[in-house]
Amino acid sequence: MRTSDFDYELPSGRVAQHPAPVRSRSRLLHLRSDGTTAHHRFFELPTLLRPGDLLVRNDTRVLPARIAARRLPGGGRVEILLLPGAPAPERGSWFEALTRPALRPGVRLEAAGVRLEAGEPLGGGRRRLRILDGADSPVALAERAGRTPLPPYIRRKGPGAAAHEAADRERYQTVYASVPGSAAAPTAGLHFDGDVFRGLAERGVEVRDLTLHIGYGTFAPVRTENPREHQLGTERFHLPGATRDAVRRALDEGRRVVAVGTTTVRVLETPGVLEAGPRERETALRILPGHHFGVVSALVTNFHLPRSSLVMLVAALAGREPVLAAYREAVGTGYRFHSYGDAMLVEKSARLSEGNLR
Questions:
Q1: Which CATH class is domain 66-147?
Q2: pTM to 2 decimals?
Q3: Could you tell me the residue ranges of all domains in the chain?
Q4: How many CB atoms lie under 10 A from the CB of residue 198?
Q5: Which CATH superfamily is domain 3-62+170-347 in?
Q6: What are the tens digits of pLDDT across the range 110-137?
């Protein structure tokens, strides 16, 4: 298995720069368990699920984590992307961030009246920072000085950029986001609205929440040709007892568990997660083809970058060839890709055996 096995051709024009005008009007490609596909709009999702299905979603809320700072003294510009900590740092303690350009330890910064100090580098552009004064926590810093942390392939420049950035504060957030802490949106959830949830309730689909704050590891590029050598960062999650019990009941009763987003999959597939014990835990689970899915039977997800750990996870559930064929079909039929793009409903392959890449 090689990282290049998960490559596909993606024209730049297929990368969505803006969300659909109405969340649930985005397109939805259904990849069935037999490898066949069908095309829908997202508001049709309730009709594609089964009565009794359990839908589990990630209720994390995206911080305005992208911060423009300046060096002290001198005023040189520095861009900071806050990364969620585990656990949340106390006032005055060190926390993680990406910075551009790189900073030497001891360099001091200022952002909207908040003074910070750079600590040691952690690799991959990450380093430690701490607040000296002006804010009580990284969350307070973000709320005071931050902008929406859109991915780098979404560009906000030129006329209208300010208006688009204002709109992003609402649209780069799920309608059910409630627990602040993420550096990126759980983008599969961006398509849901009140009408979809009413449809799910009428269909008899149960809905439960968990929380995983998305950090750098989720979207870090795979830089090695052997994907088993790629390490995901550790992310902290909270699995409420009510959600854990609902998942266990669904499995005992032979009902499907449908995950909204790859972060939800990683929580639910973390070994021992359904056992009694602490509800606050950490995961660095990497899911590749050959993974035995013990909980998740279907996945609502967006279209992911070529060669990414996320497309590998989807391939683990539905098979590499069916997934890449569905991606090629989506490219050819005009689907929009990545964070603000369209969605997939992916069912676990009926033909996929453990350890079989195909």
A1: mainly beta
A2: 0.90
A3: 3-62+170-347, 66-147
A4: 11
A5: QueA-like (3.40.1780.10)
A6: 999 999 999 999 887 889 999 999 998 8
pLDDT tens, residue by residue, 315-357: 999 999 999 999 999 999 999 999 999 999 999 998 764 444 3
